[in-house]
Prior knowledge:
single chain, three-stranded antiparallel beta sheet
Amino acid sequence: MMGTRAISPPPCVPPPARGGREGRPGHATCGPARGGTSAGPAPGAGGFTLVELVIVIVLAGILAIAAFPRFVDRGAFEARGYREAVRAALRYAHKHAIASGCNVRATVDATGYALKRSDSCTGTTDFGTDVRRPDGGGAFSGGTPSGVAVSGSLDIWFDSGGRPFEAAGGTALSSPASVTVGGEAVTVEHVTGYVH
C-alpha cells in the first residue's frame, strides 16, 4: 500500500512557564495550531450562563402571571355569548313572523329574553303561545347569566311582513329600538326589522 499512513493528533504541549507565549499559563495546549479546527468550543463561544437562564425564566413567569387572568375571566365571554343569544332570538322572531304569517313578540330585559306568538295569529295583544326552538327544544327563551349587565329593555312584536311594532301601543317603530347587553347595544331597525 502506497501513500497510506495513519494521521495521529498532535501531542499535547506542556504548559509553558508564566509569561510564555503559547497557550494560557498553567494549561496544556492540544490540537491544531491557530486557525485550524478543534473538537472543543472556542474560547468565549459558550452557551447561556445560569444567571441568564434564571432571568429568562423569571421574566416568563411574570408575563404568565400578567396574562393568566385574561384567560380565566369568563365575564367577557359570557357577556358576548349572551349578547349573541339575544341577537339570535330577535332574528328568529323576525324570521318566524314572516314564515308563519303570525305576529311574534320579543321581550328583552334584565331577567332574560322570551319569544311569544299571537294566540289568534294576527292579534296585537294576545301573545300567550311560546315560540318553540327550531331544534325541537323548549320555549325560545333564556335567562341573563349572573355578572352580565343588561341596560334598558325591549318589548316589540313583528308582523307577517317582518315590520317591528311597539308592544305597548301597537304602533310601528318610528326609530331604531335597542337594549344594551354586556356594554354593547343590540339594535332592531325601525323600518326593516333588521337586527344587529
